[in-house]
From TrEMBL:
One of its GO terms (biological process) is ubiquitin-dependent protein catabolic process. This is Elongin-C. Keywords: Nucleus. It is found in: Nucleus. Coiled coil: none annotated. PANTHER family: ELONGIN-C. It comes from Linum tenue. GO terms for cellular component: nucleus.
Amino acid sequence: MRKEDTVKLISAEGFEFVISKEAAMVSQTIRNMLTSPGSFAEAQHGEVTFPEISTTILEKICQYFHWSLQYASCHMTAIAKF
């Protein structure tokens, strides 16, 4: 996976989670930070720091992003077959 296809999410303790940009885009807030025409530093560096979210919680959030992608694609396939 290329660096431009990933996003780094950083917890309050400084732990870094590198996940696919596609997974991160599950969050509308992160999507806005990474794609808005404004000059968000997050868009320039591909990093989003969450100073109030612990490592444990951010890990679960990342897991949810990946689960949501998987579920959404399975759900859409089932709808297409219906």
